[in-house]
Design a protein that fits this description.
The protein is α/β, with parallel strands linked by helices. The protein is built from eleven helices and 14 strands. It has helices at residues 44-51, 73-76, 95-105, 110-123, 139-151, 169-184, 196-199, 219-223, 238-246, 268-277, 296-305; strands spanning 4-15, 18-29, 33-37, 59-64, 67-68, 80-83, 157-161, 188-192, 204-209, 212-217, 230-236, 253-257, 260-264, 285-292. The strands form three sheets. It has a six-stranded mixed β-sheet with strand order 6-7-8-3-9-10, with helices on both faces. Strands 2-1-4-5 form a four-stranded antiparallel β-sheet. A four-stranded antiparallel β-sheet has the order 12-13-11-14, covered by helices on one side. Helix 3 (95-105) runs parallel beside helix 5. The longest helix has 16 residues, at 169-184. It is elongated, with a radius of gyration of 23 Å.
Length: 316
Amino acid sequence: MPEPVIVLDRLAKSFADTHAVAGVTMAIPAGEIFGFLGANGAGKTTTIRMLCGLTKPTSGTGFITGHDIWKGRYAIRSRFGYVAQRFSLYPDLTVLENLRFFGAAYQVSGKRLDDRVETLLDQLDLRSKSRALAGSLSGGMRQMLALSCALVHEPALLFLDEPTSGLDPVHRQQIWDLLYELSSHGTTIFVTTHYMDEAERCTEVGFLHQGRLLAKESPLGLKQHFKGQLLEMQVEPVMEGLVQMRGVPGILGVALRSGRIRIYSAESERLVAEWQKQWPFPGLTWLGHSWAAPDMEDVFKAYSQGYSAILENTAP
């Protein structure tokens, strides 16, 4: 396995009485596409800000390529690129001027800068917008420009905080194709996302809940921690079924999937057996049931809602 680029040991950050990040320990090897998942407020952005040397850890340690993330923050900033959640470039500069400005800031100059700018304009579909002011771009094109500026110095490590938010499917796929290419050449990518189809594309995923790292594994490994398959009920009317089944003892939660009610329960087989003997919902018609393999959306729901009864122990 490649040497780890990022090593965290009980990294923590508190704001007064709020523990935003509570003792995260993990290592991320070179070339990994690491997906960092969690609900809003879980501590993902705070973790990234500590890794980037933008906020000082309260306790614990973190290292990037052997450099302490706080004490050595100035030494490592030239080694990574960072795309924040919010647009953070210069709106009064054109696309081309932003790229050249950030290139110069990272000490990229001359023919190398010219070549990088030309490559990025094509890779991220910005050629036609090169003379447009950054502030006039659509939200999606702003994201493409932000990613271009983060890549202008060809960093070995890339931090992406919800990089495809607001992008159409074509540009989302374009960015992921680029991330695959970067990863294949050894670039380590640390990405947060709320799109579960994107979590499926990561080589490894960490799940943060209330500042604590609950699991760190491949997407396949996380799905395999479910205890069996998930029950799906086909009933009519389906929306009334969602309401009624949500309150049944033994059911942790429900979700609507392709017109069926997906049930999260550690007692699904017992529920089906009981319902076959006596159907307890006189206002609902049972049309059938099936069993479904969990996907990353189910993983997210289970961890964020605390459905520990249907998960094996996944402590990293």
